[in-house]
Write a structure and sequence with these properties.
Distance between the termini: 60 Å
Radius of gyration: 17 Å
Structural class: alpha+beta
Helix content: 25-40%
Number of domains: 1
Number of helices: 4
Order of helices and strands: HHEEEEEEEEHH
CATH superfamily: Jelly Rolls
CATH topology: Jelly Rolls
Strand order of the largest sheet: 1-8-3-6
Largest sheet: 4 strands, antiparallel
Strand content: 25-35%
CATH class: Mainly Beta
């Protein structure tokens, strides 16, 4: 593998992410070679709710919205994600349908890594792979706790209806 990043922007983004914060420079460089850059125009669908996930994505520039269909014609925006935020990480672990759609809220540049290449990296560099998986587990645990709080709040509110 090259000892220089193929793309300095990708390398610098990965270097700033919590999920990769325990990696040394050579591991970050190797990982940066696995990512691809894509651009989307405002309101473009990056992926559909229900589609099978195959990659994790990071916002390099711009904003995306996480949405679910309220009905056939309308979407319900759940959250706006900004530059430096990660989405689709569950697709690195399982090939199940996506739980929400991701839509470009502004013109956006995304960097992505597909499951096959990511898992190959983990297999080839078990020490750094374990570091990434621990961070990924913490991220998913945090999101699960956040969803749990929201669910409890919703249940408590419905008792008053």
């Amino acid at each position: 593998m090259d000892s220089q990043p193929k793309n300095e922007m990708i390398f610098s983004i990965l270097k700033e992410l919590e999920i990769f914060s325990d990696l040394d420079e050579s591991a970050l460089i190797a990982l940066s070679h696995l990512f691809e850059e894509k651009e989307y125009l405002q309101n473009s669908i990056i992926f559909e709710e229900g589609s099978i996930g195959t990659s994790m994505m990071i916002i390099a520039q711009g904003k995306v919205r996480v949405s679910q269909k309220a009905n056939q014609e309308t979407e319900e925006a759940l959250k706006i994600l900004h530059t430096g935020e990660v989405f689709g990480e569950m697709a690195l672990l399982e090939d199940l349908p996506r739980s929400a759609a991701i839509i470009a809220h502004t013109n956006v540049i995304i960097i992505s890594v597909d499951r096959f290449n990511f898992l190959k990296f983990l297999e080839q560099d078990c020490r750094n792979g374990l570091k990434i998986m621990i961070k990924l587990a913490k991220t998913l645990s945090s999101r699960l706790r956040e969803a749990d709080v929201k669910l409890k709040t919703f249940v408590n509110l419905t008792q008053w209806i």
